[in-house]
Amino acid sequence: MSELAEVTQFLAAREPWSLLPPGRVAHYARLAVGRYARRGSVILSAGDQPTAMFVVRSGVVEIVDAAGALVDHDEEGACFGQSSIIEQRPSRFTFTAVEDTLLWAFDRDVVGELVAIPEVRRYFTESRLADATRREPEGGPILQVPVRDMVTRDPIGIRTDATVGEAAQAMDDGRVSSILVLDGDRLAGILTDRDLRRVVARAVPPSTPLTEVMSHEPFTIGDDALALDVLLSLVEHRIHHLPVMAGDRVVGMVTSGDLMRLERSSPLYIVGDLARQSDVAGLARVMGRVPRLVDRLLRQDATAEDITRIVSRTTDALWQRLLDLAERRLGPPPVPYCWVALGSLARQEQALGSDQDHAMILHDDARPDHEPYFAELAEYVTTALAECGFPRCKGGAMATTPRWRRPLAGWLREFADWLAAPTSEAVLNSSIFFDMRPVYGDRSLADALQRRVLAATPSSSRFLGHLARHVNDTEVPIGFLRGFVVEKKGRHRDRLDIKLGGINPIVDIARVHALHRGLPQISTRARLLAVGQHGVDVANLLDAHEFLGYTRLQHQGRLVASGAEPDNFIAPDELSEFERRHLRDAFTIVAKAQTALTVTFQTQFIS
């Protein structure tokens, strides 16, 4: 194989080159200049203005920030240097060859030519976002940026009876790349610069009604979401504009450009990097950085709620990429389906060391001959998740179990049976399956299931009574004289399970109260806040949940730092007196809430 053919083949298999027609890939392959970097040599220094974009052909490049802190490693196929060229600024990072490394360099003019191609420009937008979010540990975390704080101007809208020409003029006057189409106060659609390019390409007259060319029912995001949620939505739906909603009212717009300007911590980079991986090994490498992310967030004094939400959303991105890869491998699904998260991930409360909990809801048009496709898809994703550090669920609560991979009608019958006959299995399953959240696919299937279930639970008093009694079956690890009850023998001797004895009961209490009122919230904090509006005393439970969760994360962070596997078993003797005192208080709050639940649901009369 000639050198040109080898370069062309290498580039064609990787983004952004794979986004180009084959002939164009060969064109750019001719412009590649080989560079060799000996181990330990600096390729690009922080503060220098790069004269070329580099592509790693082989080897590893270490990236450190201006303070000397390790940021990441670039491996085969990675590009660097283009962000500084595009933004005409010095590099923020130093790139050093960790081992003997072969590079291909593309000069400034080539980068400019590439950026003129829309598909490549979108790819580089993600890369620039990733670059913008790499910074020293003391930088502010992205989780501190709610969407409402990203909105910097009032929404620019236009009536549904406007023409294409009027919309284009309004966009030009407002200097915006998109405009909201409003029917009164209701969002009817959106027109973007990409839509206008299609209009021009098809020679659509300016007098054409706007409703004929706009995007109907655009994806939106709530103003209480996080910047990380914005990125996940943009990547998942392959869009660049998101209207921001406060209830049913449009309050603004956020774009990929807004994300680039945040220049915050690394969760965005990890999520963006996951979306660019083409195999399981690459996804596993990216997920290997999550413990370091948790450590950084702990040092930034982020709350346990925010940290577990960040970890959960990162896992969402992993699942979405795996399911996308699975569909590319197996072909499109024979009928619509929804892949749902269960348990802690559904509640967006995932800590380190979690196993897998998931299921599939199939469309009712699913036939027996469709089963092999979905079985293979479930096995592919489950196996890949194990390779990425998520062990299989020992209880089998996974989509690989046929019972948890069924049409919507089958799920409705399953829940109806649980509510009607609350056996011990039904009560046990409630802790997993009543916490369900759509992650990928046709979300309307999960929404339909949730609506039906929540409509039935308030009147299922016997089932709720069994759930309440089950909550009280868990013994809080604190004795009569407020001493800690620890394991007496075995591997966890002199330790207590902070999840089993503290966090889980609060989760269960919140779930019982929410189901009792048919409330749609899934996360524990959201459920507690919602039931608090119905007269339930939740203030102390909210504080206890946050303290217990933060203490667990600190413990897991110390284990990971020492090279051990994260778990939930804490040694009280290793805590400070301040921590032990508050741990006792938290457990006492949980025990009192359990007692209150007994009174509310009269569990003494449950047989």
UniProtKB/TrEMBL annotation:
GO molecular function: [protein-PII] uridylyltransferase activity
InterPro entries, alphabetized: CBS_dom, CBS_dom_sf, cNMP-bd_dom, cNMP-bd_dom_sf, Diverse_CBS-Domain, DUF294_put_nucleoTrafse_sb-bd, GlnD_Uridyltrans_N, NT_sf
Keywords, comma-separated and alphabetical: CBS domain
Protein name, per record: Uncharacterized protein
Species this protein is from: Tessaracoccus lapidicaptus
